[in-house]
Amino acid sequence: MAIKAIGRFCFSDIRRMDAKTFFKWLAVVTLGTGLILAGLHNFIPPAQAHGKFAVATLLLFVLVCVALFFAGSGAARSKSRVAFINLVSASVFGKMLIAIAFLFLYQRATKPENEWFVGIFLLCYISYTAFEVWFMTRLAKT
To answer: Can you tell me the distance from the alpha carbon of 141 to that of 90, in angstroms, rounded to the nearest whole number?
Structure first.
């Protein structure tokens, strides 16, 4: 019974990308990434110095995903055939700039004692980039 309920929750609306589906999967990705970050924080002492950075990175990528979802929803409904492609191109470049600036500012502001912050950042970056590819692909089909 519980397995069926989990299956319905996870896979009932996987083909369409509306706001309910997006936020449900954003919560799943955020919970999974947060649990991995909590594990790193609890079991790897050098990573403990970057706890606030890990939370800030997680929040940054949640905000980027939410902004990209709403922009992508509008672009997918646009009459312009290139609006969605332009959004994807701009988002890749913009996210890269945000990532570099975020890492640079953290390094300059806190002068971290080790490089674990880069691994923490890459974990979040890869997790949320995979999620973005998934939901943007679904948006493009709507």
So the answer is: 19
